[in-house]
TrEMBL record:
Family the UniProt entry places it in: Belongs to the PEP-utilizing enzyme family.
Keyword Zinc: no
Domain PEP-utilising enzyme C-terminal, first and last residues per copy: 539-890
Catalytic reaction list: pyruvate + phosphate + ATP = phosphoenolpyruvate + AMP + diphosphate + H(+)
InterPro entries (alphabetical): ATP_grasp_subdomain_1, PEP-util_enz_mobile_dom, PEP_util_AS, PEP_util_C, Phosphohistidine_dom_sf, PPDK_AMP/ATP-bd, Pyruvate_phosphate_dikinase, Pyrv/PenolPyrv_kinase-like_dom
Annotated ranges, domain PEP-utilising enzyme mobile: 423-505
Entry's Gene Ontology molecular function annotations: pyruvate, phosphate dikinase activity
Cofactor(s) the protein needs: Mg(2+)
UniProt key word ATP-binding: yes
Protein name (Swiss-Prot/TrEMBL): Pyruvate, phosphate dikinase
Every Pyruvate phosphate dikinase AMP/ATP-binding domain range: 22-58, 64-290, 297-347
PANTHER family: PHOSPHOENOLPYRUVATE DIKINASE-RELATED, PYRUVATE, PHOSPHATE DIKINASE 1, CHLOROPLASTIC
Enzyme Commission (EC) number: 2.7.9.1
């Protein structure tokens, strides 16, 4: 790549546009776009992601890069009329990361590059502000030392705290120029002690080292963890933006802020954001100083405020979406430092999408693409019961909604450790930083005493869908003593349970009970769209769901085993049942009949046991068919191994031993124990189960088929419309299916002749073994439908047991990047997916009208639904509560493919 002399690695802000995100990263592309729009953007240039890829692959920058950077730096210096780091009036630049997808706080940035012992004096003289110059210099050494030279950040923070303590002040802004000169001297000593070298005084060396550091930050642990969490590919690389500095820390007529064109928490229109006078950008995002609301800027600097409002409207109209904006005001001059399509909460996503449709900025198809199934799932989480008795101990800023309850922990390590032990935790910090990411992921929610809606904690939490309350100033967080103190002196120790409400910002001591979300109540039919805030959200969800249902091709069924689940599924929009697991009907009191079946020594005993089960099964099916009247119901014949219906071998052995020692009767337990030993298998999931049971135990499957057929006949007699499909599990060869099919057809014919009711029962199979997928063309000769059992198919393709491996080595595989996500959560497209695709093609080649569906857990996974749409399945089936998510994603998949076709 680096040998290609035609490769261009550096672009001026005037050369790019927002469509070049792959090359320029999101930040660089949007800086170019704002420049093209004529907005006030400080001049600069972008080093492409291609340069980063070369660096990461080879360990060194492309040979052409230095010359290209020099050429663009020369042009920037000519434009600005000053040179980088010159003594009298230095040009200073920032070096900032900028990947294609937003990764807030995960990669590195260095501001004020070009300052040195010599140029800081010139900057002070030119700005007529000595304090500003030395404050900027200490920031450079602190950021450069931590980011580029790898010095522990706490060393600088402790030194700064010492300076404030010595002067008896609480804020950095209370330190004067003389104080800051001492801080700079101390910082330089820290750099020398920790690195063995002096802080670099050559401005070009500073810039080159910073560029290299940004490249390296792509592969830091926190960046890789964030990419895994957000499913961002690891081979994209980051761009680097070199931008001329503008200063918000020049005094009270300067400042910096972050703004949103709409509220990212609710989606409501208005003035949202944070502003901080006499500060640089990291002060806002880091949350180390509490900001004022953006609306206050109107009274502080009305000219800049009015200009910002106009620019925000321009950007939202141009991008046709919520925009997240970073800006700086330098002595009354407004500068735009960044814009991007802003992260938002799930509720805001739905509201904004419908608002933009109403404004005519986007159409319904685009609105559907602006929301996700994951966001819809978040909206279905419970919320706190407003009528419950609570102990409110504080209130902060509602940064990311949700109701989170857990034990208080005060560092990320503890959050991860306790979470892995099964504890639910709330991570409490003064403010979070990128190093807290693993703890934020592990926690149920995040609580900080500093920062606002644009702080690191808020932005990252919204992106992850985590509940977050920020800026709870009345709560004093002491991370060293692992405690939090309320304004009235109440102490919350580590391990105490707290509850945080990300929708109101309220913080409670103890566990607050939760109630269903209004979105779930809407799907249950208990709530309708109205005027208040909850109803407004429901109305937005309703509109988008209605459009998704109109355009989707995939039908959505439910995995349901009884009438109660079936009725709930139908309310949630299920178009049938894709999986009824009959083994669930054999539990509880009915287990005794299965035990009788297993212990039967003669044909008569076995037939009697089956005869006793028949009416019970029939009643279950009648109720199920009635609940799903007019919609298809796929009934899977008994699947698990019989030992699952017997008592635990250890418990049974103890019972037998005790009975023998007491000389008590134990004949039945002894027979059960013998049966357990007889049925014991080293790997029961690959043993005597599914179709193999039906072939080995005479009458088992025919009893179930008879119950199904008689139930269907009864419903037809009652003027019902049962649409029944009988599914044979674990088929590996067409001969197995042919034998069971022949027996089933005989039973159906008998029931039909006896009742005088015509029965049309489809017979098909689950495709859950690799051999079944490979021979799907042959199996389709005897099957009217396939339903892919992707849980078992994933186990058998990968060769591991879900119950064992998820607890043993999946965490390591995810951390090492072997898995981007568990293959049980999202379908493995290259392995399992390839078998599904080939089986679909082979099945349809044999039987063009074959019905194809999926009933594994993947049926409700958003990403997997898109895959099933692509390969041409007819339906997905999932648990009742995931039906709305599957409906939405099926609509998104259809709209997405239609858009691709039109392009």
């Amino acid at each position: 790549m680096s040998e290609n002399n035609d490769q261009k690695f550096v672009y001026d802000f005037t050369e790019g546009n927002r469509d070049l995100k792959d090359l320029l990263g999101g930040k660089g592309a949007n800086l170019a776009e704002m420049t093209n729009l004529g907005l006030p953007v400080p001049p600069g240039f972008t080093i492409t992601t291609e340069a980063c890829k070369v660096y990461l692959e080879s360990g060194s920058e492309p040979v052409e890069l230095r010359d290209e950077v020099s050429a663009h730096l020369d042009a920037l210096e000519q434009q600005m009329g000053k040179k980088l780091g010159q003594a009298d009036d230095p040009l200073l630049v920032s070096v900032r990361s900028g990947a294609k997808f937003s990764m807030p706080g995960m990669m590195d940035t260095v501001l004020n590059i070009g300052l040195s012992d010599e140029s800081v004096v010139g900057l002070a003289r030119q700005a007529d502000n000595e304090r500003f110059a030395w404050d900027s210099y200490r920031r450079l050494i602190q950021m450069f030392g931590k980011t580029v030279l790898g010095v522990e950040g706490e060393l600088f923070e402790d030194a700064l705290d010492e300076a404030k303590t010595a002067k008896k002040v609480a804020s950095d802004t209370d330190l004067d120029a003389a104080d800051l000169k001492k801080v700079v001297k101390h910082f330089k000593k820290i750099v020398k002690a920790e690195t063995g070298r002096d802080f670099p005084q050559d401005p070009r060396e500073q810039m080159d080292l910073a560029i290299e550091a940004v490249f390296n930050s792509w592969n830091t642990d926190r960046a890789k963890l964030y990419r895994r969490q957000e499913r961002i590919p690891g081979d994209l690389g980051t761009a680097v933006n070199v931008c001329s500095m503008v200063f918000g820390n020049l005094g009270p007529d300067s400042g910096t802020g972050v703004a949103f064109t709409r509220d990212p928490a609710s989606g409501h229109a208005g003035v949202y954001g944070d502003y901080l006078q006499n500060a640089q950008g990291e002060d806002v995002v880091a949350g180390i100083r509490n900001t004022v609301p953006l609306a206050d800027l109107e009274s502080i600097d009305k000219t800049s405020y009015d200009q910002l409002m106009h620019i925000m409207n321009t950007l939202e109209t141009h991008y046709k979406d919520l925009c997240d904006i970073e800006f700086t005001i330098e002595r009354g001059q407004l500068w735009m430092l960044q814009t991007r399509v802003g992260k938002r909460t799930a509720g805001a996503a739905f509201r904004i999408a419908t608002q933009l449709v109403d404004q005519g900025l986007i159409d319904e198809a685009e609105a559907l693409q602006r929301v996700t199934g994951a966001q819809l799932a978040q909206l279905m989480f419970p919320k706190f019961d407003e009528d419950a008795k609570v102990d409110q101990i504080g209130r902060g800023i509602a940064a990311s909604p949700g109701a989170a309850v857990g034990k208080a922990v005060f560092d990320s390590y503890t959050a991860v450790k306790w979470s892995r032990s099964g504890e639910k935790v709330i991570l409490i910090r003064r403010e979070t930083n990128p190093d807290d990411l693993d703890g934020m992921i592990a926690a149920e929610g995040i609580l900080t005493s500093r920062g606002g809606k644009t702080s690191h904690a808020a932005v990252v939490a919204r992106g992850m869908g985590k509940t977050c309350v920020c800026g709870a100033e009345e709560l004093e967080v002491d991370t060293k003593r692992r405690r939090m103190t309320t304004s009235d002196g109440q102490v919350v120790e580590e391990g105490d349970v707290v509850s945080i409400d990300g929708s109101t910002g309220k913080v409670y001591l103890g566990e607050v009970p939760v109630v269903p979300s209004p979105v779930v109540e809407y799907f249950e039919g208990r709530m309708h769209a109205g005027a208040d805030d909850a109803d407004e959200l429901v109305a937005a969800v309703h509109r988008i769901m209605a459009y998704a249902d109109r355009v989707r091709r995939l039908r959505v069924r439910a995995n349901a085993d009884n009438a109660e689940d079936a009725n709930r599924a139908r309310r949630f929009g299920a178009q049938g049942i894709g999986l009824c697991r009959t083994e669930h009907m054999f539990l509880g009191e009915r287990r005794q009949f299965v035990e009788r079946l297993i212990l039967a020594d003669t044909d008569v005993e076995r037939d009697n046991a089956l005869e006793a089960l028949l009416p019970l099964q029939k009643t279950d099916f009648v109720e199920l068919f009635e609940a799903m009247d007019g919609l298809p119901v796929t009934v899977r014949l008994l699947d698990p191994p019989l030992h699952e219906f017997l008592p635990d071998i250890t418990e049974l052995s103890v019972r037998v031993a005790l009975a023998e020692s007491r000389k008590e009767p134990h004949e039945n337990d002894l027979r059960l124990l013998q049966a357990v030993h007889r049925l014991h298998e080293q790997n029961p999931m690959l043993g005597l189960r599914g179709v193999r049971l039906g072939l080995v135990i005479p009458g088992l499957f025919t009893m179930q088929v008879r119950a199904i057929a008689e139930a269907a006949a009864q419903r037809i007699d009652a003027k019902g419309d049962p649409r029944v499909e009988i599914m044979i599990p674990l088929v590996g060869t067409v001969q197995e299916l042919e034998i069971v099919r022949e027996e089933a057809e005989q039973v159906i014919a008998e029931v039909q002749a006896r009742t005088g009711v015509e029965l049309k029962l489809a017979l098909g199979t689950m495709i859950e073994l690799p051999r079944a997928a490979v021979t799907a063309g042959q199996i389709a000769e005897a099957a009217e439908f396939f339903s892919f059992g992707t849980n078992d198919l994933t186990q058998t393709v990968w060769g591991f047991s879900r119950d064992d491996v998820e607890a043993s080595f999946f965490t390591a595989y995810l951390e090492k990047g072997i898995f981007g996500v568990s293959p049980f959560e999202t379908i493995d497209k290259d392995g399992v997916g390839a078998l599904v695709r080939s089986a679909v093609q082979a099945g349809r080649a044999t039987r063009p009208d074959i019905k194809l569906g999926v009933c594994g857990e993947h049926g409700g996974d958003p990403e997997s639904v898109h895959f099933f749409h692509e390969v041409g399945l007819d339906y997905v089936s999932c648990s009742p509560f995931r039906i709305p998510v599957a409906r939405l994603e099926a609509g998104r998949a259809a709209a997405e493919s239609k858009g691709s076709d039109s392009r």
